[in-house]
Specification:
The complex is a heterodimer of chains A (about 180) and B (about 350). Chain A has 2 helices and 10 strands; from the N terminus they run αββββββββββα. With about 180 residues, chain A is an alpha+beta fold. In chain A, helix 1 packs antiparallel against helix 2 (about 145-175). Chain A starts with a helix and ends in a 7-residue tail after the last helix. Chain B is mainly α and about 350 residues long. Chain B has 2 domains: about 15-165; about 185-345, no CATH class. In chain B, about 70% of the residues lie in helices and about 0% in strands. Chain B has helices spanning about 5-10, 25-50, 55-80, 95-125, 130-160, 160-185, 190, 200-220, 225-250, 265-275, 280-300, 310-340; strands at about 85-90, 95. Chain B has a two-stranded antiparallel ribbon with strand order 1-2. In chain B, a hairpin with a 2-residue loop joins strand 1 (about 85-90) and strand 2 (about 95). Classes of the chains: A alpha+beta (about 180), B mainly alpha (about 350). Chains A and B meet through strand 4 and helix 2 of A and helix 4, helix 5 and helix 12 of B.
Chain lengths: ~180, ~350
């Protein structure tokens, strides 16, 4: 019985920590509209694609995920995780297989608390104009910062309960002696 | 020439009230596989088609399968009246330990489906598999899959007929293969190359999660080279899923995205080989994790999408190996529990 109360107290403590952490808002310093510029520089065999973020430290040293999808050829896409080559600057090479309309999706930060940007561009004769990207919050508007940590705390609590329950059942199974060979 | 009587003797003798003859295990076997397929289908749908309504084809498939599993496991809990040490007495019922886990897991999935929908409506469309409500659903699916494995193994321990024991041993390995599928499903965002969390987690979890199941299967060992059989079955299942996704995509019933299939066979061979020499489970897990890291590092290097670049590997190798060693230890501990207490003469 005492162990149960200790477990319950520990769980409530964890929940409290999660709530307190959540009250500190989201992990990124500025939740308001970071912007980016996507530029394309054609080269001999491929195009150099650069994404420059403003403010340049908004993603820290974190990765940036960039996805390009052709609107004119089903199944044609290129997805890549990028590391910053300098603060706020991400770069990759891509050999576009065709001209036409493309859409892009960019993400940085973790999970739903991250930032996403999307848009479209047209590639004509191998050239593409720079595209300005306005990033939005992964959450709907005016969602309190503690929502995501609270959700993870609920998952952690259930995982713990499931683990304790499974351990209880396994211990019971263990107590049954093996049949003689 | 064998007589009909001989042939009927060589067949596994059906037990009056075991979980297979009650129809519980066949439904669980189909449900575990269809649930896994449903989630992969759902992810491919979400990536390329979107999430316009709750009642998409993959959602309907997944939740109908889980409802069937929940109903069947509740039926099994009610109908299975054997009084064995593996059954928990509860208000006139005898609850089978494995089926109980399945029922709780399936109930968790079905309970959190509307919670997930509510989350989306209140907080926006979260585009990550690791969103809290999704993780709770995955927890339920994993618990259900593990419960199915435990159910099959308990039936093996209860069976007296050698052919029946062999059958249930094979069924246990089947559930271990599906559970290996569930364990790698946690990494689906990385496999589909749409990660929403840092790349670091991919090699770490890919090394450790299958190591648990390989050591578990290798230590249960209902037949020689069990870890290898489990991994072969896992790979065959994933290849069949890839075929399904290609087929449904060509019919316009899925997206175009395909997940990478992790290469785990070499790790499983290493696990079986080391366990034959009585190597400590934590060391077996560590080696399995190391082989998984190396073989998949080479595999992702061949592709054009997923990148395990140097900085990721530099930070991931040590945690991956530590976690793999822990997974190996845990796999052996669970296998020890399932095998039961040794009786010394």
């Amino acid at each position: 019985m005492r162990r149960r109360w200790l477990t319950l107290a520990a769980l409530l403590g964890l929940l409290g920590v999660a709530l307190a952490h959540g009250d500190g808002q989201n992990p990124l310093p500025d939740r308001h509209a970071p912007v980016g510029t996507l530029t394309f520089t054609p080269g001999p065999g491929s195009t150099t694609i650069e994404m420059r973020l403003e403010p340049h430290d908004v993603a820290g040293r974190g990765e940036l995920y960039l996805s390009l999808t052709s609107l004119e050829q089903r199944g044609l896409h290129h997805r890549r995780v990028l590391r910053p080559v300098e603060p706020g600057l991400y770069r990759m090479e891509y050999a576009f297989p065709r001209d036409g309309a493309w859409v892009f999706y960019v993400h940085f930060g973790t999970g739903q608390a991250g930032f996403v940007g999307q848009g479209r561009f047209t590639r004509a004769g191998g050239a593409v104009q720079a595209v300005r990207v306005e990033f939005g919050d992964g959450f709907a508007r005016e969602v309190p910062g503690y929502v995501q940590p609270l959700g993870y705390a609920a998952f952690g609590l259930l995982a713990l309960v499931a683990g304790v329950g499974a351990t209880f059942l396994l211990r019971r199974v263990r107590e049954v002696p093996q049949a003689p060979a | 020439m064998r007589s009909l009587q001989d042939l009927s003797r060589s067949r596994p003798a059906p037990r009056a009230h075991d979980l297979w003859s009650l129809g519980v295990l066949p439904v669980l076997a189909a449900g575990a596989l269809s649930g896994l397929l449903g989630v992969y289908w759902d992810i491919a749908w979400h990536i390329d088609i979107g999430r316009d309504t709750f009642f998409t084809l993959p959602h309907n498939f997944l939740y109908a399968g889980m409802a069937a599993v929940l109903f069947t496991s509740l039926y099994g809990l009610w109908r299975d009246r054997r009084a064995t040490p593996f059954h928990l007495p509860f208000r006139g019922l005898r609850l089978h330990a494995g089926v109980l886990m399945v029922a709780v897991g399936a109930a968790l999935v079905l309970l959190f489906a509307p919670m997930d929908e509510l989350w989306h409506r209140l907080f926006g469309t979260d585009l990550t598999l690791w969103a809290p409500m999704h993780l709770i659903g995955l927890l339920g699916l994993t618990l259900g899959g593990f419960g199915a494995l435990v159910s099959a193994w308990i039936e093996r321990r209860l069976a007296e007929d050698p052919a029946r024991r062999q059958f249930y041993g094979g069924l246990t390995l089947y559930f271990a293969a599906v559970l290996m599928g569930w364990s790698t499903l946690y990494l689906a965002e990385y496999e589909f190359n749409v990660p929403q969390f840092p790349s670091f987690f991919h090699p770490v979890l890919l090394a450790a999660l299958p190591a648990f199941l390989m050591v578990l299967a290798g230590r249960l060992a209902p037949r020689p080279w069990s870890a290898t059989w489990v991994t072969l079955a896992f790979s065959a299942i994933r290849l069949a899923f890839a075929g399904f996704l290609i087929g449904t995509s060509s019919l316009g019933l899925a997206g175009d995205s395909r997940p990478m299939i992790p290469l785990l066979l070499l790790s499983a061979l290493a696990v079986d080989g080391l366990l034959r020499y009585g190597t400590a489970p934590w060391l077996v897990g560590l080696v399995a994790g190391g082989v998984t890291l190396l073989s998949n590092w080479l595999l992702v290097g061949l592709g054009d999408g997923i990148v395990w670049y140097g900085a990721v590997m530099a930070t991931a190798v040590a945690p991956a190996l530590v976690l793999s060693a822990l997974a190996g230890w845990a796999g052996a501990a669970v296998a020890g529990s399932l095998k039961g207490r040794e009786v010394r003469a």
